[in-house]
Each structure stands twice: as C-alpha cells, then as structure tokens.
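Consortium newsletter contribution from the modelling node. Members have asked for a concrete example of what our holo predictions look like. Here is one, prepared for the copper (II) ion complex that several groups have been discussing at recent meetings.
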Amino acid sequence: MTRMPKLLVLGAAATALAAAGCGGGGGSSSSTPSSPPASTPAPAASTTTGSSSSSGGAGSKLSLSADPSGNLKFNKSSLSAKAGTVTMTMDNPSSLPHAIAVEGNGVDKKGATVTKGGKSTITVTLKPGKYTFYCPVDGHRAAGMQGTLTVQ
Ligand SMILES: [Cu+2]
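And here is the predicted structure:
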C-alpha cells in the first residue's frame, strides 16, 4: 500500500535527475564541425634582407712603426691591403722625425711629420696594384725607409 508512492517518488526523482542532466548538457552544442580559428601566420614585415650591405664603409687599416733605435727604416718592408679606402698609421717611437707617405698609380700622399711618440696617418683610396710607402723626410727614403704596399 505504501510502497507504490515510494517507488513513484524514486522514479520521479530519477526522472528529475535525468532531466537535470540533460538540461545541464544542453549548452554544449556538440557535433559542430566548425574549423579551428585559422591561425595563418601573416607573412608581413619579413623584408629585412639585404639591409646590411655596407660596401664601402670600413676600409683597410694598416699600422707600422718607425725603427725605435734611430735606423732609417720601418718595422715592415711590405704591406698588403684590399682595394678601397686604406688608412695607414705609423707610430714614431724614435728620436728622429718621421712620416708615412704612399705613392704609385697616380697616388701621392704624405702624412704629417711627427716626432717621438707621435703618429702619422694618411687615408687614401687605392685600386689594385703595387704602391710604395715611404718616409718623406729628407734623405730617409733614399736611406731605405720604404716598402711595398700591395693592393688586391
Ligand atoms: Cu723618416
């Protein structure tokens, strides 16, 4: 007599639970084959090639020094550089005045004459070929203060 109502209640509860479950999942619109948000990497701003073509900026740098003990010669008798802008710096550690100069192929450039502790610098634009670097102080070149600069 009193069992039927219980079963009905249980059944109603079960039905209610089932209905709640169904309703809860109603929000999930399953089986919607929407394609994922197309994450296509935009190929923009990728034109950074060839921005570092520094042709003609930095040139060759050559350094040499006069003989420190007063002999009329440089510490190098041959130098080589790449064609283009060439900067030559000569240190003068001796008690005699010296300078750096270069000539050849139409180039004739002399640096300042410096005394002990000074630097003589010249900057020239050179084409491939052979040049002579020397000290333009009177008598020094003739005494052997010169060398060959090969430009390639
Ligand atoms: Cu000299």
